[in-house]
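Data card: per-record layout.
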Amino acid sequence: MSDEKEGAGKDPQAEVKRLWALYRTLSQELLKFIDRQDVDEFLALAAQRGKVVDGLKALPREVVEAYRATPECQAIQQEIRPLDMQIVYKAKSWLNKSRRQNAMVRSYDLTTEHLSPLGNILNQEF
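The structure for this 126-residue chain is written out next.
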């Protein structure tokens, strides 16, 4: 059963609480999978977390804001902030490393469209 269907017909306050807890759990899992460099699972979890955000946006704004003001939600947010910062930092690092590796691979690509003029001069017979 999907998360959206699970929340259908429930008390909005209970649903907000459930979604925030799920968001925290998914954030913790994202960090684990980025550390393992498991791209597929990371992207799947990021999509699930996006659905949780969509679920929060679909609930009445006043209910969501009322829960955000509670000490319980403040504690959850305190846990999530450093996780999100780590996820963003590691994702950027991961992306930059991947770009460097791709650039290195392309630098060794010797197809004619990528040959440098120097390489062409060295390959000519005098």
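Known properties of this structure: The chain is about 80% helix and 0% strand. Confidence is low (pLDDT under 50) at residues 1-7.

See the next section for split statistics.
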